[in-house]
Amino acid sequence: MSQRRFLIASALARLIRKEQGVAGRIVEGYFPARPDREHFVSIEPGHCYLVLAPGREGAGVEEQAEVPRSQAEALLAVCAGKVGFEATIVRLRGGKEALLQRFIAPGSLDRISVEFEEGEDAAGFVPPAWFGPEVTQNTAYDRGSLARVGTPAPEEIPLSNAMLDQLLDTLEEGTIAAQLGRGASPRATEARSDRRTEVASSGPDELSAPPPESPQRDDLMTGLAEALEGRAPHPVPDTEENSVVRSFRWRKS
Q1: How far is it, in rounded angstroms, from Cα 186 to Cα 164?
Q2: Positions in the chain whose pLDDT score sits under 70
Q3: 148-171: buried (b, 16+ CB within 10 Å) or exposed (e) per residue?
Q4: Residue 29: strand, helix, or coil
């Protein structure tokens, strides 16, 4: 399997998360870097893992062992760096799925990944207009690097009507058309117009802000985010939807 990774404008990421929700929240702690492997602990909804991954794509098979949460938290405390992110599954046109990751710690970053099975032509994939710059080969955007070094200087990702229109079409096809088995209804068209107006009229800070916190929050993610950024996301229970996100191999850089 292989992946291609892209940045995405925070305003569009905010819209996707509002429409699709957050399927999982993850905290990872990375041990000192080695050229041949990545070694880290991952705390996910309902599960904790100690993971040994190859240093580069295609260099071996990832190994993982489930560990108690208390042990995972103890390991997290001695890691060289930590990263926390929220995950959202996005259904692209043509049936392909992508994983949107909203990094909360150590800094704010929106990244979207598309995974390809063995034999698929990853190079032939044409990214949608609403994708930002590709960072597949830029190791500064790997999760291990983000954890140990921090987020790179933010890139200005321009927005256009074409990008917004294509994203809205994608979201509609993945929700309304799938549920009704037909094109968007007049009511859906009105909702689409409302979302377009919201994106156009909202400021960057408002658009990139996380959803309102729920009364119950995950203590570990809360502590990490407060320590590294000053705010925290709210938790998601361990549901079948979270298992779908786990199967997306978010552990691969």
Answers
A1: 19
A2: 56-59, 175-253
A3: beebeeeeebebeeebbebbbbbb
A4: strand
